[in-house]
Amino acid sequence: MQSKRQRAAGPAGKSDGGQRVMVAPVSVVNPPRKAGSGPLFTRLRNPSTGQAALYLFSSDAGQLFEVKAYHEEYRSWFIGQTVQQDGRLLFATPVDPLFLVLFYLAKAEKEQGKFQPLDQILVDAEFSSCTMLLQCTDISKSIHHVVEEKETGGRKFCKYSEEKTLKWLTKKVNQTVKVLKDHDVSVGGKVQSATFISSKKLIGATEEDYIRYAHGLISEYIAEDLSTTLSKYLRLPEVAVPPKEPLPKKRKMSDAPVEAEEDYTKFNTIDLKSKKANKMSAAQKALAKVDKSGMKAISSFFGSKSKATK
After folding, report:
1. CA–CA dist 280, 87 (Å, integer)
2. What confidence tens digit (pLDDT) does each residue in 41-100 have?
3. DSSP secondary-structure letter at 185?
4. Which candidate, 111, 124, 126, places its Cα nearest to that of 159?
5. What domains can you pick out in the chain, each with its CATH number?
6. Sign of torsion, CA 23 26 29 32?
């Protein structure tokens, strides 16, 4: 599919930077509410990191999709009579827009902590498209899950509620656990959080494993501090990090006694000399009895020779 802002394809054989290949649900291109409108790619804040990420609004702006790219080197696409050098394959998957709204609700709570109209909370100078989140059909139906509401003068005001948010996120975790079980997804301790391995026989997977895995998936859409709070709310035990083994100390050369690492026997230089003296071979004993008077020391044969006088 192509964005409504994409350029027309160029001459045959030339690449067109405005074309992309994407896998997306049919609902992305549902008939728009207004004539001339269509699917819209835009950048919004990632609710987990707060950084820019690519999203896609459906034609009627009622659904929000996150866009991920699968990329391999040395790949391109033939699109009609053109060649697109950018060989990335884009995937558009539905995402609950309430996760993105939650980022702004929590931010407003920290900065002001008061009831405000939702359209005043969703204000971002860097990402002006965030106001389009209010057009998503799910927002009006689900906003009460994460805020306290009150109505004054026929207008609704809301304020972030951590308690209600944790209950809503817990439901999300439970729903994810059910999907994992229904699809036989392995959630063992050795499985990475972003890797799905289908298996009919799940060996060693406990209820805690499922909850922890689901918590990890949900945490990709919420801030880190909220993820930590949710983990405590779910009563997930902290994962024990194995202590690092200390590096072996270098031994210094000395005459002090040395203690063996795997033996309780202690040795020192005096003991070693006495033990060596007590353990003499028969040849050494016989040599000791020989009369050495008149014999030159063996070292005298290796001394420097004196120069002859002229």
Report:
1. 82
2. 899 999 999 999 999 998 888 899 999 888 777 778 888 888 877 778 888 999 999 999
3. B
4. 111
5. 21-160 (2.20.25.530), 163-233 (no CATH)
6. negative
